[in-house]
UniProtKB/TrEMBL annotation:
Organism, scientific name: Acetobacter aceti
Name of the protein: Transcriptional regulator
Domain of life: Bacteria
Amino acid sequence: MRADRPEQIWDAIDRLAFEKGFTPSGLARAAGLDPTALNPSKRHMADGRVRLPRMETMLALLRAASMSWHDFADYLAGETKRGQEGPERRSVAGRIKVVEFSRLGTAELFDRAHLPVPHLWSEVGSPFADAGPHDYAIRLDSAVYEPSFRQGSLLLVTPASVIHKGDRVICCTPSPIIAIADQGTENGWRVTTLSGEDLTIPTASPAHRVTAATL
């Protein structure tokens, strides 16, 4: 297991938490740790250097996520690979397009390729280190998805990312939803909402993978 930057350990932990359906604090709680154990403020020492998680902490987190060291090494290898990609992978000048979740049903926000129409979106400084040129952010202006996603969080959405079963996706139907992908069909994606409802999202409606989220 190799990381070129200490931050990649934390990036891999964040991605692990997200893909297992937790916030970082939720994963810490599931592991029997203090809920603040993975907070950003706990990741740096007083002199600014990155503080690496202790072995006991890592073992507890991996047990809670039902993940082996070998599988976590694959996560870490993925973070290392992304960290080595060129600047064309990242959003322009650290900025990212953003819109409120409640506005996602506005069809004009997306072009025929289901990509954001730039002048209809706001831009903010990106909190995501690995946002691609077509990625966009959704600001959750509702508490309906708590505790999975906190109200006020930013979700990073990656249109170019291939959707697999179990991925969390944004479905930009007339009534936008966040759901878990089940199966792709010729008519669209079958998904399960976070409240357990089964739906089919037609091919004509954008369904994009959520790849990261802020706390």
